Amino acid sequence: MTRNEIKQISIRAYLDKMNIRPVKHYNYYGMYHCPYRQERNASFKVDYHKNVWHDFGTGEGGSLIDLVMKIQNCTFYAAAKKLEKEYGGVQISDSGNSFSFHGNIASLTIQKIIPITHPKLTDWVQERKIALDLANRYCSEIHYQNKDKVYFSIGFRNDKGGYELSSPPDFKGCISPKDITTIRNNSDRCLVFEGFWDFLSYLTIQKIERTHNDTVILNSVANVQKAMDFLQAHKEIYTYLDNDKSGQEATELIKSHCVSVNNRSEQYAAYKDLNDFLCQKPTVKQEEKNQKLE
After folding, report:
1. What is the pLDDT of residue 67?
2. Does 92 fall in a domain?
3. Inter-residue contact 18 to 41 (CB < 8 Å)
4. Can you tell me the distance from the alpha carbon of 260 to that of 237, in angstroms, rounded to the nearest whole number?
5. Cα separations (Å) of 141 from 47, 135, 157, 165?
6. Does pTM surpass 0.90?
7. Rounded Cα–Cα distance for residues 155 and 195 (Å)
8. By residue range, what is the domain housing residue 108?
9. Domain-located, residue 30
10. For the sheet containing 109-114, what is the strand order?
11. Which of 17, 148, 188, 196 has the fewest C-beta atoms under 10 angstroms from its C-beta?
């Protein structure tokens, strides 16, 4: 394992494995009690985006390898060996190629499921204009193996226990079985989204962490037929699908099977999808007009 590979390992995830949690948690950093000395106040900062730490009590700081050396009171070589033993199977590269996946999806096996902490994934969430706390409410960081390599992505769980995967710059995949994701609140109204980024974008635009409506995330318009029984049980349906041919066809299919269907994609007609609308917001005046989508 190279020095660059070690630097990519999340400090937050490493501390989490040691059952060390932040006392105060903010958008991009957390304040901890120092893991290698006694203190009353939390003066140990971990920057999630830069993946570095700083001890305000001593003025020390650095990357994960520096922290392991402090906690274990060991040499660089010993700390590197310890990390290689724990993380050596995870393939990480500065170019981001660790997110590329080619092969049989059915052969994937999950290695671990943790909160979204890796800098490349937290940056990906930020680029999508989604708050990390909100993303972690509905998604996880999934480490999964294909043959002799381990990869990691943001994962969103479906109703059959599979995971929809997303990683920068544009990777999409699935750990089978593939299915829709439903959120059931015993409501007569149902919201429909194509993917989980659109669902999180909706919550962000509405400035809420959850909706009181029933919701279905298709995880692909190819799954629209799987959602039909669930949709037909509702009096009102609001679709927030993509403004492309497949999204329009899925909307029309829902209209042909359900009584009251409201196509909300017209409210962001100038954008490909709801997340694109969120990431490329119009002027403040226009934004205020479009703020409420329900």
Report:
1. 93
2. no
3. no
4. 6
5. 18, 10, 11, 9
6. no
7. 12
8. 97-175
9. yes
10. 109-114, 139-146, 149-157, 163-167, 171-175
11. 148
Provide the number of structural domains found in the chain.
3
Q: Which of 117, 149, 175 is the last residue of a domain?
A: 175
Pick from 27-41, 44-58, 75-89, 277-291: least confident: 277-291
Q: Which residues pair with 110 in a beta bridge?
A: 144
Whether the pLDDT of residue 101 is over 90: the answer is no
Which amino acid is located at 25 in the chain? H
Q: Which residues in 220-237 are b (16+ Cβ under 10 Å) and which e?
A: bbebbebbeebbeebeeb
pLDDT of 268 reads 92
What is the distance between the alpha carbons of residues 292 and 24, in angstroms, rounded to a whole number?
A: 32
Tokens representing 174?
Answer: 């699935």
Q: What CA–CA distance (Å, rounded) separates 241 from 181?
A: 15
What confidence score (pLDDT) does residue 109 get?
78
The CATH number for 223's domain is: 3.40.1360.10
Say yes or no to pLDDT of 191 above 90. Answer: yes
Other beta carbons within 10 angstroms of residue 124's beta carbon come to: 21
Does the residue 189 lie in any domain?
A: yes
What's residue 169's pLDDT?
Answer: 78
The DSSP symbol for 178 reads P
Let me know: does 175 contact 144? Beta carbons within 8 Å: yes
C-beta of residue 138 within 8 angstroms of C-beta of residue 34: no
Q: Is the dihedral of CA 280, 206, 135, 43 positive or negative?
A: positive
Find the mean pLDDT for residues 93-118.
57
* pLDDT, tens only, 3-14: 666 767 888 888
64-72 and 76-87 are packed helices; what angle lies between their axes, rounded to 10 degrees? 110
Q: Clarify whether residues 195 and 282 are in a common domain.
A: yes
Give alpha helix (H) positions in the chain: 3-7, 11-17, 64-72, 76-87, 119-127, 132-138, 196-206, 228-232, 245-257, 274-279, 284-289
| 8 A C-beta contact, residue 220 and residue 226 | no
Q: Looking at residue 213, what DSSP letter applies? A: S
